[in-house]
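Contributing new complexes? Match this layout with glutamic acid.
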Amino acid sequence: MIREDNPVEAYRGRFAPTPSGRLHLGSLLAALASWLEARAHRGRWLVRIEDIDPPREVPGAAADILASLQACGMPPDEPVWYQSQRAPAYEAALAELLARGLAFRCPCSRSDLEPSAGVHRGPCRPSDRDRTPAIRLRVPAGRIGFVDRIQGLFEQDLAAEVGDFVLKRADGLYAYQLAVVVDDAAQAITDVVRGADLIDSTPRQILLQRCLGLPTPRYAHVPVLLDGDGRKLAKSAGDAAVCGADPLPELRRLLGFLGQPEPGAGSLEAFLAEAAGQWEIGSVPRRRGLPVAG
Ligand code: GLU
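Output block (do not edit by hand):
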């Protein structure tokens, strides 16, 4: 466990976008918050492209996201990782979980799980035992909780609410939950700052960390930006890309959403340095979503 009282632990944060579209205001908010937190701790800030789902990937999106971060004055401190190159690490984690009986091969189809509303609990009841199996984590009874640095205590009864969840799909794709846990540990991430739409993935990730004997980072979930219909701004929905020739107006606006005072500085570099100097995670609104007016 990473402890607040461990001053030796070097802060390592990350931004982990899925390349399903260009960087939009909502994802830039998560990037900015995690970058400011890392800078305020004099830590390192990493970028990891979560390209494990080829059907969702948009060609050129990864390069575009990286160029936008650069244009916004937030280049990563270390070489970028690509999850598409990490299959051996995910396979090693799966092999360990299977060998220890913590994960299992599951031939159940979606329709087999209909009676339990899509939730897999306990023994498999496949209509076809020969179907190519997925790999699921065996989820034990009990609540898993953590104290989020922005949202406060968050708890889930994973067995009841989520069930035995998928780590590798029958079609061979690795699940986000597995890849993110393996890579956060492999990159020695101490602090995850990301959008609050992912808060209910966190107990699954903590359980998986425990199963694999990996440390649990600290978590802070920032509010997600909502459009006029109360929906999350989404890159795949074609929301306008950000960080053009002059990213300052957008960054100013985002700092306002994050409850931070507005820096006076004029140049991008000075602006970001001032924002990092006065960054207070405690001022970020304790909300899951924030409407973006206009
Ligand atoms: N790849 C995820 C996304 O773009 C974020 C993963 C994370 O920050 O844990 O929504």
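Reviewers usually confirm one structural detail per submission. For this one: The chain has a mean pLDDT of 93.
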